[in-house]
Design brief:
By secondary structure, the chain is an alpha+beta fold. It is built from 4 helices and 11 strands, in the order βαββββαβααβββββ. It starts with a strand and ends with a strand.
């Protein structure tokens, strides 16, 4: 089982309380191997009021929280039964587990917040192998040669017809 991102529906206005409660439970119940990150998607907007510009942080999706987790029975139960959570998006209910977000969807949301789907400091090291999710090299495994966070690109070595070939791939198009 691998970690993926899921959308959790909350009572509107309780997004930060749900995030706080989940993070407390992760620490107290030692669920670090099942639930990794809880994010309230937000963006900075500039409002002009009475001729004065003010920068405000606004929730992108009121009533929703993103959770990066392994969909184990224990983690699913913990998140679903957290006070303020009304359910998962992408679940038919009746005990069915939800469908995770696509990597491209997660990247779009997190990149707009200045975050990354992949924890670069822990998951992207030179020499580590990653799976390519999109493009002509889809489903191939490549070994990281270099990471350029400014351009959000990786240089990978892939085995192409028995020969090691260097390619450039967007950070959004890989899975660690």
């Amino acid at each position: 089982m691998k970690k993926e991102w899921y959308v959790v529906n909350t009572v509107t206005g309780y997004e930060y309380k749900v995030k706080e409660k989940l993070e407390m439970m992760i620490n107290s119940m030692e669920l670090h191997d099942n639930i990794y990150r809880v994010v309230v998607p937000e963006e900075k907007v500039i409002e002009v009021k009475n001729g004065v510009k003010k920068e405000k942080v606004k929730k992108m999706f009121p009533g929703y929280v993103l959770v990066e987790m392994v969909m184990s029975d224990e983690a699913w139960y913990i998140v679903r039964n957290t006070q303020g959570v009304t359910g998962f998006i992408g679940s038919s209910g009746k005990g069915a587990k939800p469908i995770p977000l696509l990597p491209q969807e997660v990247d779009k949301i997190l990149n707009s917040m200045g975050l990354s789907r992949i924890d670069v400091t822990k998951e992207l090291e030179v020499g580590k192998k990653v799976k390519i999710l999109n493009g002509p090299f889809k489903d191939m495994i490549g070994k990281i040669e270099s990471v350029d966070m400014k351009t959000q690109k990786l240089n990978l070595n892939v085995d192409l017809f028995g020969q090691e070939t260097s390619i450039e791939v967007d950070l959004a198009d890989i899975e660690s």
